[in-house]
Amino acid sequence: MAAPVNRACKPSGERLPFNTTSFQKKTRSKLLSIPGTRPSVQNGQLLVSTGVTSLDYLLGGGLAVGTVLLIEEDRYDSYSRMILKYFLAEGVVCRHELFVAAAQDNPVDILQELPDPILDDIAIHKPVEQPRLSCEPQDSFDAMKIAWRYQNLPKVQSALASSSRFGHYYDVSKTMEPEIRQAAKCHHFYLPEYPTQSSPAQSPMLESYSALLKSLEEVIHREGFDVAAPMSNSRNILRIGLHSLGSALWGDDLCCHDNPRHGHALTTFFYGLRALLRSSLAVAVVTVPSHLIPNRALMGSLTRLCDNVIALESFKGSERETNPLYKDYHGLLHVRQVPHLNCLASQLPDHKDLAFKLKRKQFSIERLHLPPDLSETVSRVSRGELAGAAMVASACSSGTSGNKHLDF
Question: Are the CB atoms for 217 and 225 separated by under 8 Å?
């Protein structure tokens, strides 16, 4: 009993502090702070933007880091390729590193076609206009006047800076400036430049897919995108864009035969890709020509192997292209699957009737609203009125004698 007495007799200056508690304030210090990312409000997962703000909303706020977005290409590969360009352009604006793989077009050519960002927080190095002296005569009186406190500020930034916003808008009628595009670090994989050998019959993966997965793994480990790598203040995101996997240009025969010889090559690649992304700061967008693959069971397996799956159905070359009901749209968008990350149930879109359209400068996804068909409505009303008139006529003719009919 001596210890409590001695503590009580100690002066107030020597008493132990009483602010020690088992309750600690919840902080977000463990979350990575990477430009162009934000945590999800549903599950706390780190998200990146696809470049299309309406698509981010459908996917629950964006693409989670470590996941795969599978895009089922439209018939002419026009709009799926555009979404891939949006995804890569968003990475360039946010200063993320890129990994682009293709078998048809050179990845360098794909990067040169990226849309131009519509930004106010990213500027290109341009000569700054010097302020006009008061003694100089004015060229015209129509020039816009600004407040004196802003006259000496530079009109544009002198250096290229990364954007701090999440999600941006792009002008598809223009291509990105070379100064902005060259500021991002890009890794390329062009299949014709990689000599591949014919894989043996017992190999579960094609040589082209194996070389692609090996190259991707080398970039992730060499550039420090692995989660197991030591933490540093300069952590970044790797955006992976894989164009038209499963086509014949990759050496795959899924689109050529009903019973392909390499039927499990693509699914094996997706197994390896998903396992690689789960342990790295990377996110992938993969396009697949699903309309050329007759095996629906295989497409179901690919859907289950990916986290996000959307399908694009273009009106180009179909009867809906000339249908006046769809004159405001260029195709339909189907959400096949949304991710189930750190939660029991995923957030599904509010509506499933979605359509996309390409405006003069912007690609957007909207809810499908069909216009009222006035001609059909009028005809239905007319038919209803005629039916009611016939009933009245029959009632009048039965109640009266003679063959007199009412004239409508």
Answer: no
Residue carrying the six token digits 């050519």: 109
Tokens for 202? 């017992």
**122 in helix, strand or coil?**
coil
Q: Look up residue 135 and give its DSSP letter.
A: T
- The pTM score is 0.74
In terms of Cβ atoms closer than 10 Å to its own Cβ (0-12, 13-18, 19+), residue 57 is: middle
How much of the chain exceeds pLDDT 90, in percent?
48
Average the pLDDT over 275-288 and give the result.
96
In 10 A of CB 272, how many CB atoms?
17
Contact predicate 116/92, CB 8 Å? no
Most confident of 26-35, 234-243, 345-354, 362-371: 234-243
Measuring CA to CA, which residue among 312, 334, 363, 284 is closest to residue 48?
284
Secondary structure (DSSP) of 259-295? S-TTTTHHHHHHHHHHHHHHTBSEEEEEEE-GGG---
Average pLDDT over residues 13-17: 51
